[in-house]
Write a structure and sequence with these properties.
286 residues, mainly alpha, 1% strand, APC_YAT
C-alpha cells in the first residue's frame, strides 16, 4: 500500500515580512529535512545525558514515587506547551522560527528580546554541561583518558556535523537518535529482566526498594517538610530532561518538507515517544 502523500498546496509556505499584508513565497531554505529527520531530532533531544543523570539524582534525592510523579506531571505540561507552539509553527513555518521569534511577532518586541537572550544563555550553559556530563558517564568505566580529551572529541564531531548541508545534518541526527532509542530500549528491557530475577544471581528485585528505604525520601530537613522539599527538588531535577527538547521539533519547521502537513503528524508521534521514553526511566527505580 502506497504511503499517503500530502496535498500539493501544503508544500507552499507563505510568510509576511516587513509588516506587509501581502504574503510571499519563502525561498530562503531548501527544506532538506524529511519528516523522519525532524521527528528523530526531537526524540533524540529528549534522550540525552541529562535524562540518565537527572533520573539518578531524582531517585536518590526524592525516591521512586516522586520520580514517577515529577516526570508524569511535567510530561502533561510539556504536551500543553508543545501543542500550542506547534500550532503556531504550522501556521507560520519560517526560517528562524524559534520561540523568541514567535514571542516577538505575536506578543511584543520586549518578549522576543528577553526570550532570545534567555535561550542564548540556556544553550551557552547547557552545551558545556552536556560535555562534562558525557565525560562523567564515559569515565564511569574507569578509563585512563583525561576528560579534556573526550570533551575535545565531542566538540570536534559537533562542529564538523554542523558544517555539512542540512540534509547531511539531518541524517546524522537521525542515526544518532536511533542509537539513543536502541540504548534506552535496552535499558528498559534490562530493568524488566532484573525485576523478575533474570540477572546472574537470580535475585528478583520486584518492589524491594519501594519498601526499603521506601517510596519517598526526605531532603535537607526531616519529616513532612523534608518530603515536600524532596518533591519540589524532584521537579527541578526532572525538568532538565525536558530543557529545549520540545522546541527542537518547532525549530525544524523552517527546514522540514511540507510543514503544514508534516508538523502536526510528527507532533503526535513525537509526544507519544516522549511519554514512552521519559516516564519509564522511573521503572528502573524498582
Amino acid at each position: 500500500m502506497s504511503k499517503k502523500s500530502p496535498p500539493s498546496h501544503l508544500g507552499e509556505v507563505e510568510t509576511i515580512r516587513n509588516g506587509s499584508s501581502d504574503p510571499e513565497r519563502n525561498e530562503d531554505t531548501h527544506r532538506g529535512f524529511k519528516p523522519r529527520h525532524s521527528q528523530m531530532i526531537a526524540i533524540g533531544g529528549a534522550i540525552r545525558t541529562l535524562l540518565f543523570l537527572g533520573t539518578v539524582q531524582v531517585l536518590c534525592i526524592s525516591g521512586p514515587l516522586f520520580l514517577l510523579i515529577s516526570y508524569g506531571v511535567l510530561s502533561i505540561f510539556i504536551y500543553c506547551i508543545v501543542t500550542g507552539i506547534a500550532e503556531i509553527a504550522t501556521y507560520l513555518p519560517v526560517p528562524g522560527g524559534t520561540m523568541a521569534y514567535y514571542g516577538h511577532k505575536y506578543v511584543s518586541r520586549s518578549m522576543g528580546f528577553a526570550m532570545g537572550y534567555l535561550y542564548w544563555y540556556s544553550l551557552g550553559i547547557l552545551i558545556p554541561y552536556e560535555f562534562v556530563a558525557s565525560t562523567l558517564l564515559i569515565n564511569y568505566w574507569g578509563t585512563a583518558v583525561s576528560g579534556a580529551v573526550w570533551i575535545t572529541i565531542i566538540y570536534v564531531i559537533i562542529v564538523i556535523v554542523n558544517l555539512f548541508p542540512v540534509r547531511v545534518f539531518g541524517e546524522c541526527e537521525f542515526w544518532s537518535a536511533d542509537m539513543k532509542v536502541l540504548l534506552i530500549l535496552g535499558l528498559i528491557f534490562l530493568s524488566v529482566v532484573l525485576f523478575f530475577g533474570g540477572g546472574p544471581d537470580k535475585d528478583a528485585l520486584y518492589f524491594r526498594y519501594w519498601k526499603d528505604p521506601g517510596p519517598v525520601n526526605t531532603y535537607i530537613v526531616e519529616g513532612d517538610a523534608g518530603r515536600l522539599v524532596a518533591l519540589l527538588q524532584s521537579f527541578v531535577l526532572a525538568s532538565f530532561a525536558f530543557v529545549l527538547a520540545p522546541e527542537q521539533l518547532i525549530v525544524t519547521a523552517g527546514e522540514i518538507q511540507s510543514p503544514h502537513y508534516n508538523l502536526p503528524e510528527r507532533l503526535a508521534d513525537t509526544f507519544g515517544a516522549w511519554s514512552f521514553f521519559l516516564c519509564p526511566p522511573s521503572s528502573e527505580s524498582v
